[in-house]
Design brief:
13-stranded mixed sheet, Acyl_CoA_acyltransferase, GNAT family N-acetyltransferase, alpha+beta, BioF2-like_GNAT_dom, single chain, 13 strands, Aminopeptidase
């Protein structure tokens, strides 16, 4: 028997889940992730959460509603990828069927749905939504860079890095004045150091510091936080925010003080962080997150394309022109 339910708050969804999504294998599939992201970054947008259940198998869609006519993935720039969340052990056919049922519910009243960033689930979502009546358009929008170690230790991984990167690290290390630390906890003093480095970096002001602090505290409690610092006589000059779990390291944020560009503290800190993750944490996979920054290609070996999926309800004439415009944009790139 297939049952569907809908929730208008994350608190309602959390109650219904009864702990079943608390520590899902992927950080981005956890109820804590969605709840914190909405609370700290997207609170002005109502949520729309749909569940389809068939026996022990479930599919969940976590959406937000920026306007009455539009739903979007409950995600932003902190999300490495967005996808339906599955519970139980549904095979591909069951996953598709459950999502199709949810897409049909959305089709009854929805006009436009946009989902980003979508990776491996793009084909399934396109097929399921189109079968439910939606007109769907897929557009590549950036990528994320990943590394599969395939049994290599850090020495073997480092030997495979580009010559330019290895020479840079060797040269800067000879005159290195920095000390490095990798913390598994977060206290006020450490967080103040993290914020200070970011404020002195090339990056724009961080809009989600409260979200990142909550994430750091949650993952520190779970033992998965890796907060790295490069320091000069105690002063923080570079920092990186990683989490490590289930054989995968996620690189969430990094920054360094521009005043120390010439000494490359960020690059040297990366060297230390990668070595620790590979040899101490024994991870098998590293994900550098969204964005096609050139420096990522030196540390990573694969690029995964990220997609934006737009779905338009053809029953509403108001969607015809934006649907056509989006389809043309996808064709011309």
């Amino acid at each position: 028997m297939l049952v569907t339910r809908e929730y208008s708050t994350i608190a309602e969804a959390r109650l219904a889940l009864a702990g079943r999504m608390d520590r899902a294998p992927s950080l981005f599939d956890r109820i804590d992730w969605f709840e914190s992201l909405h609370h700290h970054c997207l609170a002005s947008n109502p949520v729309r959460i749909l569940q389809a259940q068939e026996g022990s198998n479930e599919a969940w869609l976590f959406l937000q509603s920026p306007s009455n006519d539009r739903q979007s993935a409950l995600a932003n720039w902190y999300s490495f990828a967005w996808a339906p969340v599955y519970l139980g052990d549904p095979d591909a056919q069951t996953q598709r069927r459950l999502v199709e049922v949810l897409a049909a519910i959305l089709f009854k009243t929805g006009r436009h749905i946009d989902l980003y960033p979508v990776a491996d689930s793009a084909d399934l979502l396109l097929d399921a939504f189109r079968r439910s009546g939606w007109f769907g358009v897929r557009r590549p929008m950036g990528g994320r860079h990943v590394l599969n170690l395939n049994g290599r230790d850090f020495a073997a991984y480092w030997a495979d890095r580009p010559t330019r990167l290895r020479n840079q690290v060797h040269r800067k290390a000879r005159s290195n004045r920095f000390t490095f630390e990798i913390r598994h906890d977060v206290i006020d003093a450490l967080w103040q150091d993290y914020v200070a480095v970011h404020a002195s970096s090339w990056k724009q002001p961080e809009p989600g510091l409260s979200f990142l602090r909550a994430l750091a505290e949650r993952e520190a409690a779970a033992g998965t936080l890796r907060l790295g610092f490069a320091r000069l006589k105690g002063q923080p000059v570079a920092t990186q925010f990683w989490t490590v779990e289930n054989g995968t390291a996620l690189i969430h944020k990094l920054a360094h003080d521009r005043a120390f560009d010439g000494a490359s503290p960020g690059t040297l800190l990366s060297h230390a962080m990668f070595a620790h993750a590979i040899d101490a944490d024994k991870i098998s996979h590293i994900d550098y997150g969204t964005g096609d920054n050139a420096y990522k290609t030196e540390w990573m070996e694969e690029r995964q394309t990220l997609y934006r999926l737009d779905f338009f309800n053809p029953r509403f004439a108001s969607t015809w022109f934006p649907a056509a415009r989006t389809a043309i944009s996808a064709l011309v790139g």
